[in-house]
Amino acid sequence: MRADIVICGLGPAGRALAYRCLVRGMSVIVVDPNPRRHWRATYAAWTDELPAWLAGTTLAATVALPRAYGLRAHTIPRSYSVLDTGRLQRSLDITGATVLTGRATRLDRHIVTLDTGRTLQAERVIDARGLRRRPGRAEQTAYGLILDDPGPDEPALFMDWRADNGADPGSPRSFLYRIPIGGDRVLFEETCLVGAPPIDLGELARRLRCRLRARGIPVRGDEPVERVRFPVVGGAPRPGRFGAAGGYLHPATGYSVGAALAAAGDIADGHTRVPNAARAVYRLRRAGLRALLALPPSELPGFFDAFFELDINLQYAYLSGRADFAGTVAAMTRLFAGVPPGTRARLAAATLHLPPLSPPGSGSVIME
Fold it and tell me: What is the bridge-based pairing of β-strands 185-195 and 44-46?
């Protein structure tokens, strides 16, 4: 079979790319082991990351001023949007593409070989299969409950590190993520930002229920549950890869969908060369991941206080500037200056690949 483009993987990145290619009149083949599966995860992005072509009906809720807590409260002056997962999937219409059920076992620039032995040929081949879980890879985990909206006394929380989840003070830290998802429903999710290994889902479930009790938020016991577990490393910016497989996933935050949606049109147009700045930013973000892995639990809230006190343009550069090398360096430099001296020493050691400075047995935040 021949086509203008073969896309392997039909998650949000692969499906968005297929959709934008079809809009441009290209012939498209998509390959996925389960191409008709319904997405279950909750996807969100900073509103300014989302492309203009994305249908407004795909937004389930938008928060103008989300809040964050480290040791103190912060208001983030940047709009944050939660996507309606079902509407998003339907809006990325791939009618007109040739949809094949199968696994790609070999990919090169122009040929894909499937597990059946069948070969596909195209002007371009794109790997959008995401990242595989492997022993030793840092992962993000989360356990969430979808509850009725408890009202304005519980604002949208991008990240809440307050210590009311019943965790032992020396154990790895987790934070609360609380966002509206439309229809007077709210997702409360206890999250391990990144871990190697991460905090297991059972412990996160226990912490979430403890936190909800502490805040007087009732739980019936039959609420919908969301479970999250995915690697944050394993991909890298390179031609022929897209989405998490191509380094669009931020290794220090786990976000990727907004970046992939924003870039899908350019990739469809053939702009596949990876700028040197994007490669350099990815290496800086990996350094940021090492820094998080090096911090002991007690220092995490203060670290994020320093981050959310940065100018919003610097926050934007670090979180969303995939090819903004100067902005990322400026954000990391300013953050480094804003944390306490002990934290600064550990950040420097981790960034430079020096031996960790956390004392043995200290319960490093991410159990490195």
Answer: unpaired
Q: For 128-186, how does the pLDDT look when each residue is reduced to its tens digit (9 = 90+)?
A: 999 998 888 899 999 999 999 887 777 899 999 999 999 998 899 999 999 999 989 99
For residues 137 and 196, the answer to whether their CB atoms sit within 8 Å is: yes
- CA 265 centroid distance within chain: 20
- Name the residue with tokens 């200056």: 337
C-alpha to C-alpha distance for 350 and 214, rounded to whole angstroms: 35
Separation of alpha carbons 299 and 288, rounded Å: 15
Residue 105 is inside which H or E element, if any? strand 104-107
CB-CB contact of 161 with 301 (8 Å): yes
Reduced to 3 DSSP states, what percent helix, strand and coil does the chain have, rounded to the nearest 5? 35, 25, 40
Instruction: Report d(CA 120, CA 277) in Å as an integer.
Output: 33
Positive or negative, the CA dihedral 281, 282, 283, 289 is positive
**How large is the average pLDDT for residues 245-273?**
95
Q: Are 262 and 46 in contact (CB under 8 A)?
A: no
Residue 240 region, left (φ>0) first, then alpha (ψ -120 to 50), else beta? Answer: left
Which comes out higher in pLDDT, residue 150 or 41? Answer: 41
For 63-72, 225-234, 292-301, 314-323, which range has the lowest pLDDT when averaged over its residues? 292-301
Q: In what order do the strands lie in the sheet with 80-83?
A: 44-46, 80-83, 59-63
pLDDT per position as a tens digit, 97-129: 999 999 999 999 999 999 999 999 999 999 999
Looking at residue 357, what DSSP letter applies? -
Q: Which of 24, 43, 11, 28 is nearest to 94 (CA)?
A: 28
Mean pLDDT (whole number) for 56-62: 95
Helix (H) or strand (E) holding 32: strand 28-32
Question: 92 pLDDT exceeds 70?
Answer: yes
Distances (CA, A) of 176 to 49, 160, 188, 222: 23, 5, 7, 20
d(CA 263, CA 360): 43
CA 119-18-181 angle, to 5 degrees, is: 130
Q: What is the pLDDT of residue 355?
A: 53
For 268, the 3-state DSSP assignment is helix
